[in-house]
Design a protein that fits this description.
Blueprint (H helix, E strand, L loop, with lengths): L4 H6 L3 E5 L4 H12 L5 E4 L4 H11 L6 E4 L2 E4 L3 H8 L2
Parallel strand pairs: 1-2
Antiparallel strand pairs: 1-3, 3-4
Length: 87
């Protein structure tokens, strides 16, 4: 695949559903930051609406859930994230 990764990522909408005490959430956010991927974090412990949204989108109650342009990644799956983000 050729092209500018950064511009591809800039066009993607990435949302990470997290909780305060989730080590895999921290790992997912660190991975995204290390790869200069901008994302919106929604803490499902602090935001009931975000929790409902996450359950509807993913069909599960565990975190992290990462939404990349409507494609749901359950848990911190680095290989899947790299594939979807073109890394």
């Amino acid at each position: 695949m050729t092209g500018n990764r950064k511009s591809t990522q800039d066009n993607m909408k990435v949302t990470v559903y997290t909780t305060n005490s989730c080590p895999n959430c921290v790992a997912a956010k660190e991975f995204l930051k290390a790869n200069s991927v901008e994302f919106t974090e929604k803490n499902v412990e602090q935001d009931r609406q975000a929790a409902k949204e996450m359950i509807i989108r993913s069909g599960q109650r565990t975190v992290p859930v990462i939404d990349i342009d409507g494609t749901i990644v359950r848990g911190f799956d680095q290989d899947k994230l790299e594939e979807l983000l073109g890394l």
